[in-house]
Amino acid sequence: MSKRLAEEEAGPSIRTKRIRSAEKDGHVSDCNDPECEGCDVGDVEISFVRKDENGEDQTFQPSAQELLSMALNESNTTVASDQDNEIVRRLFDLALEQFEKTDPENDRSGYATCLVELGRAFDVEESLREGLDIFRGLSKKTPSLMKAEHWLTVAKASTGLLILIRKKLNSNFEELLEELEEEDESPSEEQLKKYSVKREELSLYKETLDAIEKALASSSHLPTKEARFGLQDLQSYVQLLDHPQHYNHISVLTDGLDRFIEQFSYKEDPDLLALKASLLIHKQSLLGNDTEKQKKLCKDSEKLLLDANNLYKEQNNKEYPRGWELLAMLQLSQSNLLDDEDEVVKKYEEAVESFKMAHKLNPGKNR
């Protein structure tokens, strides 16, 4: 049974059971156990239960939106075992079936949203593309139906595609560098071009910036949590652009994100202060030999992080793990910009202490 949903007394719960394969003594493809009497137990059957007015369990058929909410809750909270993933995937499939039946012909935003969430949960590029295409069509044919949450879902889809595309490019480039290292060679200009920002990436990140801007400017209610996720999500893509040839694109994205962040009360928000700082830290790391500009960006980042750490401590009465982690990264960068050897060692030791603090505050995070 799904642990989270089964324990939510106020809401519906999921009950699951395995359906044994129709084939007698069926076995999974990799079963080599001579004593096994049948291990291919088939698909998971899901039923939905909630309490009636007498407190008795009653099965019911959830709506498309309820199914999508269950899928999202499960994907965000369950341990990623094979069965958990199978349940989540099945919930998404059921939600898609329901949205196909219930979405109006001229507004398939529910179905498109479900496709995008499925694509993000399981890195399914085809689902992201299909969902994004539906929203593109909706925004052209009936733009009045596009609300703030729809534009944020467009941004989620396009950023999801950006991350998948860039991760593949980065993985290929890393393999190339390993091969060249064995030959004691450096990548050629032609090889570096293959690592450049592609035309599709350029189009997608422009679409992402435009979608977030439209969401923030929308007269409809802005889902603040989703809007903040959109900013963090795009920052994740920026971090994947890690070569000096990407600098101009990083500048465009950083400027856009900075403009969006300032539409919130970011000076009273440690997470947004830290987000601004992380963008500057990443930007300065690709500046090459422009030491003065790097020092300026480091100084601006340091002020933002000190403000973030102090504000978080004031609001929560404890230290800020993310702030200390970013401060450690900043201090490492600063150590590389110093000429005096003693100052370099001192700054490096500060970075080590900051990393120790970050790990102490959040020991479960991989570093």
The coarse overall form would be globular
First-last Cα distance: 33 Å
Give start-end ranges of low-pLDDT stretches.
1-10
* N to C succession of SSEs: HEEEHHHHHHHHHHHHH
Kindly state the mean pLDDT as a whole number? 87
The tally of helices reads 14
Report the major sheet: 3 strands, antiparallel
Structural class, by secondary structure, is mainly alpha
Structure, briefly:
This protein has 367 residues and is mostly helical. It is 65% helix and 5% strand.
Describe the structure.
The protein is mainly alpha-helical and 367 residues long. It has 14 helices and 3 strands. A 3-stranded antiparallel β-sheet has the order 1-2-3. Helix 8 (199-217) runs parallel beside helix 10. The model is unreliable at 1-10 (pLDDT under 50).
Topology overview:
Layout: H1 3-6, E1 13-18, E2 44-51, E3 57-59, H2 64-77, H3 82-102, H4 109-122, H5 125-141, H6 148-182, H7 189-193, H8 199-217, H9 224-240, H10 247-261, H11 270-284, H12 291-316, H13 321-335, H14 341-361
Antiparallel strand pairs: 1-2, 2-3
What labels describe this entry?
3 strands; mainly alpha; 367 residues; disordered N terminus
